[in-house]
Amino acid sequence: MKARPFLAALLAVALAMLSFGLAGWWLLLQRSPLALQHQALSMPLAARFVPRTAPLSLHWLVGPDQPAAYARAVAPPRQRRQAAAAADRLRDGAFAAAGLDYSSELSPWLGDESSFALLTPPGREEAPGWVLALRSRDNEGARRFLQRFWQTRSLAGTDLQITSYRGMGLISGRGALLGQDPQPLATALINDDLVLIASGRGVLEQALDVSQIDELNQAASAPLQKAIQRLGEGVALLTARPEAMEQWLGLPVGEDAAAVELVLALTPQGSGLQVDGLAQLREALPSLGPVNTELMRQVQVAADSLALLTNPAQLLADQDANGWSTLLGPALSQALQRENGPLPALVAAADSGPLLWAHQAEGWLLGTRADRPAAETLQPALEADGYSASPLESRGQTLQAWTRLESKPVKGNPDQLQAQLAGARASQGGVAWWGQGLAILNQQHEGRRSPQERLDQLELLGSPQAPFQWSMDAQAAQGLLSHWKPWRLVGTLSSSSLTPMVDGAALSLEPDGSEQRSLRLRALLQLHS
Q1: Rounded Cα gap, residues 406 and 415, in angstroms
Q2: Rounded to two decimals, what is the model's pTM?
Q3: Sign of the C-alpha dihedral computed for residues 459, 462, 468 and 473 taken in this order
Q4: Where are the alpha helices (DSSP H) in 181-290?
Q5: Quick one: residue 245, left, alpha or beta (phi over 0 = left, psi -120 to 50 = alpha)?
Q6: Phi, psi dihedrals of residue 441, rounded to the nearest 5°
Q7: Of 448, 471, 494, which marks where a domain is finished?
Q8: Parallel, antiparallel, or unpaired: how do β-strands 160-165 and 130-136 relate?
Q9: Which of 165, 251, 356, 500 is least surrounded, with the fewest CB atoms within 10 Å of its CB?
């Protein structure tokens, strides 16, 4: 009986030690740079000073030194210093673009939130109005920064004006940010811990005005709050309206933009980045039909690019354009036209889906249902281009090929003719396979290798029911990103080429919610560690 109190005490000590150990482990995880992978997305303080109508806003929700710490944590031991230095260069370049020197002006006091907002649409003759919000780690850091900020500019001959607006002190003048010509500037200190720097007194007063009216600022926007809750996690929050999507994000939206507002969250994942976004639409998206991923499991060729489209004919339709046609139609049409021969565009335009589109060194491969589209429906368009159909036998399977003769003069024989292949078609297991040449169709028939890496990328996106899914290897992703305006801008800010670091990418789009008035975007960018 005497042993029971002793055992109870021993058990209590063990449980206490276990509890302390778990608590310590939890604290380590919370303070670890890897915790950024699960950083909760939140409404930043600066959102109160950003109008809902702002064409563009970017809120950075973690400390300026944390990206470098994260890059060091996920990089191989021999590359940790280089990875951290690359993250620091990007941070320094971003603040330098805003006219501020991070090491001398910001590092002693800058806290976990930095925001930039464009308040007037780009493209006008006058310079666009902007506001930069910097949150301090303490009450004195922001005040000391503003004192030094205006002292250096007053010594350079800037005339300063100190006024009061809505009970807040404003300092304005025509000064120069780092490396820039003199321009109108205005600053305000909010609650001793938030610094606002704006491109002029009028712009700053506009930001202060909307902060007093909930119906006008981002912080009280119910759609934005709902989007943040829906997205859940992220270290950065970006909002964009149609007037800024094309010029700043390189997204062709046209005059009648389908999207009203785009909200994106950025989260680090391993050595790469994950983007999760919602686009609020003017009109509900029409249904593209049920998602059928069976073709994904049947493709048996290695692919540098792999895409699944639920209803390509509807995406390419230009009559009575719907939301999907506006969003994806032009880009899809251009991509199909870049493939060799007219067959890919003809098949996609006649296919109600699903359509599997793979690409590799041997060319393109399309997978459709065996009966839709029927080869006969494409025949008139192919004949108009001079292609005629003929049966072929290749490695035990019967193919239908479309060819035409073209003159190809060679030395000594100006009348040399050569057969040009538009593509070929084979049926296998209830699926029609359309290939650029015989080699890729033979690979599919023999089942040499599945595109497992591309399938794994799509699985990581976590959107198996998305009607549009696309994954690509390093070369394809690098080629795509090298022409994308925001990617080139990021490379400029980091003072180095980031494209060689890209190891692959994936993208999916699907309606979000039962009303289908919003579009969910998921993207994955894989980088070399």
Answers
A1: 10
A2: 0.88
A3: negative
A4: 201-211, 222-231, 242-249
A5: alpha
A6: -70, -35
A7: 471
A8: unpaired
A9: 500
